[in-house]
Amino acid sequence: MSRSWFFLLMLLIAPGPGSSLLAQSTGIPLLSNGNSELALSVQAGVANLMVNDDRHRVFTAVARPAFAVASWIDVYAYLGLVRQNVEFGDPLRADFKGNASVLYGAGVTLQLPWRGPGRSRIYAGTQMAFFAPGGTSYENLNAQNDGLRRIRNTTYEWRQFQSSLFLAYPLNKVEFFMGLELILRNIRTVTTVQLQQEQSVVPVNRTALPYLEQTLVAPSMGFNVRLPHRHQLGVQLRGLGSGDYGLFIGLSQTGTLD
Fold first, then answer.
1. pLDDT of residue 254
2. pLDDT tens digit string along 124-181?
3. d(CA 99, CA 133)
4. CB under 8 Å to 172, separation ≥6 — which residues?
């Protein structure tokens, strides 16, 4: 097993009850630095999203095979696993614990034909991701706690578009970058509701409703470090504060010779 696949395996099994691994990084790596080569990256991250008073956490671990069409442009795909947890602002609702589901998507990154001071460069990227984690939450219907509760089986259907523009500055084996990301989120919920009292469960209804449509611009920064054996280690921080942020880490193959 190669180091990259071992790293991906560790990402898949590492999250514990207190950890929180949203979608993907647009800066890990900035480019694979190859030319007509196929390179593999593996990524994980930690993210937080507030919707009204509900706190969403999305756990992801993905593989990103990329093809370097030329030394200045990559096209790539995403495939991995995602899980979503929600802490509701309503104290009568128990936390939503999601199940693992598939995440997939694709994107393109490129280096613009510009050189600045200190060999600085500009990178641009666009990607789209789809995932639909599902799970169950419970809601007590009165304060007496007589056993009557509502069961919600919910699937959150995510469509997330990200576009980024980064200024990068190389320093020895490290390339630092900072810039802005445009993020468009569209989330729909599909919910089946049941009522439960003691051993009796009664179906109530099923709904499919828009949950969130959001457009925002977020600052982002990070770095990629060249490692031996044609690898890069990358870290990216993106966000607007405690209500919406992401921290990503990834290991990537490159087309750069040692």
1. 84
2. 999 999 999 999 888 877 656 567 888 999 999 999 999 999 999 999 999 999 999 9
3. 6
4. none
Residue in the structure block whose two tokens are 């259907």: 157
pLDDT at 146: 65
Q: What pairs with residue 106 in β-bridges? A: 77, 128
Structure-block tokens of residue 234: 């990358």
Could you tell me which residues come within 8 angstroms of residue 217 by beta carbon, excluding any fewer than 6 positions away? 180, 181, 182, 183
Residue 45 tokens read as 């991250």
pTM > 0.85: yes or no: no
> Which of 202, 98, 96 shows the shortest CA–CA distance to 148?
202
Q: Which two tokens stand for residue 7?
A: 């790293």
User: Is residue 207 within 8 Å of residue 162, measured between CB atoms?
Assistant: no
